[in-house]
Amino acid sequence: MEADMKVDVSGSTMPIRLMQPDGATSPSPGLILCHHREGVDEFTVDAGRRLAAGGFVVAIPNMYHRRPAEETWEKSRKTMSDTNVVADLRATADLLARQPSVRADALGIVGHCMGGRSAFLGAAVMPQMKAAVVLYGGGIFKTEGEGMPAPITLIRDIQAPILGLYGDHDHVVPLDEIDRLIVALKEHHIQHDFHVYQDAGHAFQDYSRPKMYLRDTSEDAWRRMFEFLKMTLRDRDTH
C-alpha cells in the first residue's frame, strides 16, 4: 500500500511517498529512503517498494521540494544544502514515528549516491536512527551549503551501525576516500560493515543506467542490505 503525503518544512511543502508492507499484522520498522541526485525517480520508487516488500514501512522525501517542479534535477542538485537536508530528514523521521504501523524504536535510513551522503548525515544528526545504509555515497568530507560543517565532523554523534557498499572503480568516490571513512569509523568505535565490490563502478544498483548497472553486484548488495536491516531493525528487542 502506498500513499502520497505532505509535511511542512520551514514554510515549504515537502511531498513524501509512504510505502507499507503488505500483510503486516503488527507495527514494522521504519526506513527513510534518501533519493539520489536524479530525485524521486523510477529507480528510487522501485527501491522503496523492494524495501517495503521486505517488511519495512518506507518514507521517501522529495528533498527538491524548494525548487520549481519543472526544474531539471541538474539545477536542483546545485542548490542542495546540508541545513535543508537535515530539516527534511527530521521532518520525515517525525512523520514515520507518528504512523501507527511503524515501530518508533526501530528507525533506519538508506540512500544511494547523493542519498548515501544524506543517509550518513541523517545518522549523525538523528540519534533515533538505529541503522544506516550508505550506497556509494561520496562527499562526506566536504561541506554542502552554508550553516553546517562537513558530515564527517559529526561522526562522533553517530549511534547507529553503518553498512557501506561501494565499488573499487567508482569515479565519484575514490578508494582513498572510502579508506579514510573506514578509519574514522574505527577511531570513533562506530559499528560498521563496509564492502567494496571488485570491478564495480558508481551507481552499480541503478538499472536506469545500463552502462553502470551490474545485476549480480546489485543483487548481492540487496542481500547484504536486507541481512543488515534484519539484524539491526527487524530483530531488535521490543521489550
Task: Describe the structure in brief.
The chain is an alpha/beta fold and 239 residues long. It is built from six helices and eight strands.
Can you describe what's shown?
By secondary structure, the protein is of the alpha/beta class. The protein has one domain: Alpha/Beta hydrolase fold, catalytic domain (Rossmann fold, 3-Layer(aba) Sandwich). Helix content is 33%, strand content 24%. An eight-stranded mixed sheet has the order 1-2-4-3-5-6-7-8, sandwiched between helices. Helix 4 links the parallel strand 5 and strand 6. Helix 3 packs across helix 4. The longest helix has 20 residues. The mean pLDDT is 96.
Supply the key terms:
single chain; 239 residues; alpha/beta; Rossmann fold; 8-stranded mixed beta sheet; 6 helices; 33% helix; globular
- Class from secondary-structure proportions: alpha/beta
Under CATH, the topology can be stated as Rossmann fold
Radius of gyration: 16 Å
Number of domains: 1
CATH level 1 name = Alpha Beta
Query: What spatial form do the alpha-carbon principal axes imply?
Result: globular
- Run of helices and strands: EEEHEHHEHEEHEH
Uncertain runs are none
Distance between the termini: 28 Å
Topology readout:
Layout: E1 2-9, E2 12-19, E3 28-34, H1 42-53, E4 57-61, H2 73-77, H3 82-98, E5 102-112, H4 114-125, E6 129-135, E7 162-167, H5 175-187, E8 192-197, H6 215-234
Helix pairs in contact: 3-4
